[in-house]
Amino acid sequence: MAGVSLQCGDCGVLLKSVEEAQQHAELTNHSNFSESTEAVLNLVCASCAKPCRSKTESDLHTKRTGHNEFVDKTLESAKPIALEVSKDVDMLDAADATASADQTEEMVVPEVNQEFLENLESMGFSKAKATRALHYSGNSSLEVATEWIVEHENDSNVDEMPLVPISSKSEASKPSLTPEEIKIKAQELKERARKKKEEEEKRMEREREKERIRVGKELLEAKRIEEDNERKRIMALRKAEKEEEKRAREKIRQKLEEDKAERRRKLGLPAEDPKPTKPAAPVEEKKPMLPIRPATKTEQMRECLRSLKQAHKDNDQQVKTAFNTLLTYIKNVATKPDEEKFRKIRLSNATFQERVGKLVGGINFLELCGFEKIDNGEFLFLPRDKIDIPVLHSAGNELNSAINNPFFGVL
């Protein structure tokens, strides 16, 4: 039986003529074609007479229009293939040879089905793109042309008008789509574009969600580290405060023992024997005339600041302002001892009285640092030759401790 179609050896598609094989080769770069006795399928819709060249195309037509009755006219339309070259000759080479022989032939715009062209233009496609789609899709149907546009929308020459030799112009006279089919096709294209956009938006949303989760984890970890550091700092401050309180109680106990011993001495009573409460740690017997160790200046400063905070414990801001003001006075004298303006304070100054003067222990602290009252108590003055830098440093350390320790003077 003579061949009635050409089959592409690369993809298996059946083509009705040499021209279709050439067009297929141009579109796909496939070059392995052979003659086949299998005819190209031709299913004609019984309702609208639309031809379909494959089962897939007929199913698509049924889905769009609801027409499900088709007449198989494959054998009626099958015609022997007229080949000018041998069966085994590569069809692409034959096309190239024909093009070489007709180099001088005039190139013109191919003729396409005008109704198809108008329908595609009404969908929003340019004339050049619609003409190219109809020409390279075989001018078979509006659906095939539309699918060709979707598949080749990224081609660099998709908007260029196609040109063919004048001898290869073909006529397209197949029935056009109904207005209903045109609307369905346009709606399908819009739906496809919408779904593609939705998928892209979903992908971007997933990426943004991943980024939000990552940033949230980093913030939670940073917050946890900050809370751990704050907890450790508070524990250290509480430990320091307990140790300070323990030392203060020990000093008070020692002072009471010394006062008691002094009273017994004045009354002429013998020294009290130590209580045998801790036999494992014998305590040396105190001598009656043992001199009492006076409190150091640093201890006096600390006690002065503690008294100030206790006396004004209901106003933390006022106490903090007083400590910062005293620290400023001490720092100025320690860094610039030669400037008299930093070593002389007018007691009647309203700012000084508001911040330090009227508070219990404020002036006493400055006197412990070396300041003296002069001019009948009008000024506090620290002579240049009486500046004791170690004492000023101790005063600054005590003030810093009182400012930064939230438990200072609480117990």
Describe the main β-sheet briefly: 3 strands, antiparallel
Shape: rod-shaped
The level of helicity is: 40-55%
Task: Indicate the low-confidence ranges by residue numbers.
Answer: 85-92, 97-103, 170-175
- Radius of gyration in whole Å, from Cα? 53 Å
The end-to-end distance, rounded to whole angstroms, is 115 Å
Spatial strand sequence of the major β-sheet: 2-1-3
Mean pLDDT: 80
What does this molecule look like?
By secondary structure, this protein is mainly alpha-helical. It contains 13 helices and eleven strands. The strands form four sheets. It has a three-stranded antiparallel β-sheet with strand order 2-1-3. The chain has a three-stranded antiparallel β-sheet with strand order 5-4-6. Strand 4 and strand 5 (51-52) form a beta hairpin. Helix 9 (297-311) packs antiparallel against helix 12 (362-368) and helix 9 packs parallel to helix 13 (389-404). The longest helix is centred in the middle third of the chain and has 88 residues, at 179-266. Residues 85-92, 97-103 and 170-175 have low confidence and may be disordered.
Keywords:
single chain; 411 residues; mainly alpha; 3-stranded antiparallel β-sheet; 11 strands; 8% strand; UBA domain-containing protein; Znf_C2H2_type
